[in-house]
Structures are given as structure tokens and as C-alpha cells.
Amino acid sequence: MEEELLRIFDTNRNAIGTATRHEVHKFGYWHETFHCWFVGRENEIDYIYLQIRSEMKKDYPNLLDITAAGHLLAMETVRDGIREVKEELGIAVSFDELVSMGVIEYSVETGELKDNELANIFVYNRDLNFEDFTLQAEEVSGIVRTEFKQFADLWSGKITELQVKGFDINGLGEKNLVNKVVTKDSFVPHQNSYYEKVVEGIGTTLKMGPSFK
Predict the structure, then answer these.
(1) How many domains does the chain have?
(2) Model confidence pLDDT, tens digit, residues 57-73
(3) What residue numbers bound the domain in which 31 lies?
(4) How far from each other are the two terminal CA atoms of the chain, in whole angstroms?
């Protein structure tokens, strides 16, 4: 996985070549990623779904993250990023069912990892059951959801914790219920401005109705 080639960019988003994933994060090259946020509605309440990163992940194990996300390889287009949803979550989604929120630039430096992303952000708005998910164990260990309003209030600073419910799968392949209170520290450390833009975009999408209609 470390030797996958990614397309790299200058600060004006001009492609300037390729580099391995290791080089991208070592030297902080700008690169493209695909982010897909799942939302749904139940009993007149809007929910957002979050993945629990596998404990086997090199970066940010066990933290809450985007429903499905990954790097775009050098030969891939943004449309090809939809493979991440099927690979990580086991759910077949058409690219045309997604609502684009555009590209968000953000930078995070954690230890030796320098992550400069051009993140292509999408929303998938559909009512789902937890039984619909079949997880890629080496990438994702669980799926939880929380009320979208609570999620928005967390990142705007109105509240400091929220409740998530869902499931995770342990090392023996057993599914366990998850029902716990989390804080910002429970999430992958994307910039706060990233989460604020995501909240704004999802809020707009929810007003549009389900993306599959």
C-alpha cells in the first residue's frame, strides 16, 4: 500500500508529477482524496454516519472518521473514488447518487505525517440500516451514527460531547453494540474549518432531500 503512486500538485492545484504515498506524507505534497459522508433520516431526525477506523491502521487507529474516504491514485479520476465506498463499507453506490460539496483544501501535521489534501467531498443521502454495512476489517472496525444537529453543534462549539450509537467488530469477528459519549478528541484531527465546511454542505444537501430521488 505504501508504494501506491499518487498525483501531486503545487499550491495552485497544478499537477506536477507523482509520488508514493510514503513520500506524499513525508514531504507534505498536495494530493487528491475522496471523502463520502453518509446521512439519513429516521423519525424526522437527520443522522450522520461515521466510521471507526481499524486498530490495524497505521494512522489514527480507533478514531471516528468520514464514513468512507481514501486517496485517489495517480491514474484515477474523482469518479473512480466511489470504489472506496464499496471497499470499506460493502455498499454499492453509484457516483450519480452523490451530491458534490466541491474541493476543500486542508493541512494537518501529526508527528512525522504531513497531510496536505485536496479533498473532493460528497454526500450520500439515503436511509440505511446498520445491517446494510459489510466492513473491510483492515480499514474499518465499526459504524456509528449521531444526530446531525449534535454533530454540527460539536464543531461549532455549542456542545463539547455527543452520543454515538452503532456497532463494531472485534478481533474474533464478533459484532458488538456501541453506545457511548464522544468528544472532538475522538475524531481524526482534520482542521476544525474542514468540519465546519462539511456541516454547512451537508445542511444544504439535507434540505434538497434524498440524493437517490
Answers:
(1) 1
(2) 988 999 999 999 999 99
(3) 5-208
(4) 37
The CATH number of the domain holding residue 73 is 3.90.79.10
Q: Answer yes or no: are the C-beta atoms of 160 and 75 closer than 8 Å.
A: no
Question: What cell was used for 55?
Answer: 486498530
**Which residues are CB-contacts of 5 (< 8 A; sequence separation ≥ 6)?**
18, 19, 20, 73, 74, 75
Give me 50's grid cell.
Answer: 461515521
State pLDDT tens for residues 20-33: 999 999 999 999 99
**Residue where the block lists cell 452523490:** 98
**Among candidate residues 160, 174, 107, 135, the one with its CA nearest the CA of residue 49:** 135
Helix (H, G, I), strand (E, B) or coil at 192: helix
Other CB atoms within 10 A of residue 109 CB: 12
E strand or H helix at 165: strand 162-169
The single-letter code of the amino acid at 10 is: D
Q: Report the chain (213 residues): mean pLDDT per 10 consecutive residues.
A: 84 95 94 97 95 92 96 96 96 95 91 92 94 94 97 96 96 93 95 92 81 43
Residue 105 to residue 24: CA distance in whole angstroms: 15
Position 178 in a domain:
yes
**Residue with cell string 489514527:** 60
- How many angstroms separate the CA atoms of 146 and 199, rounded? 13
Is residue 213 a part of any domain in this protein? no
